[in-house]
Fold:
Amino acid sequence: MRFLIVLCLNLLCCSCSDNSVYDNYKTVSGQWSSKEPLTFKISGLDTIQPYNAFINLRNTSDYKFSNLFLITELQYPNGKKVTDTLEYPMAYPDGTYMGDGFGDIKENKLWYKEHLVFNEAGEYSISIKHAMRQNGSVAGLETLKGITEVGVRIEKPTSK
Structure:
């Protein structure tokens, strides 16, 4: 009983200090199609405040790769687009998946952009699609197995 009380108090204290200003997930049903980017609409952010942006990803043991390639597109309210190709490690050299979680699902909080300033008022969008391919193949995979959810998280930087 004492353990449960301490756990609840700990969760309560952690949630009070959350510096997140946007946190949203999209569910991927079984297979993530490379032709269907996941798009997140973000608005109402301070135009002076710098933020840290993350891509959150949940995967299962059906994910058969040690890394992940993503193509992101940040679209500003004025129409300007910034496209990035990103690579993230997903497993340790021994094959153990990185990330937090128990059992079959692991959650990874992947750096997207540090000290990002949304300097225009209005709605931004972040689109994410995978760019995975089999080793030695030129053509990309049309569908990617093992990813269950993809999210975007925007946080105010913590001062240390």
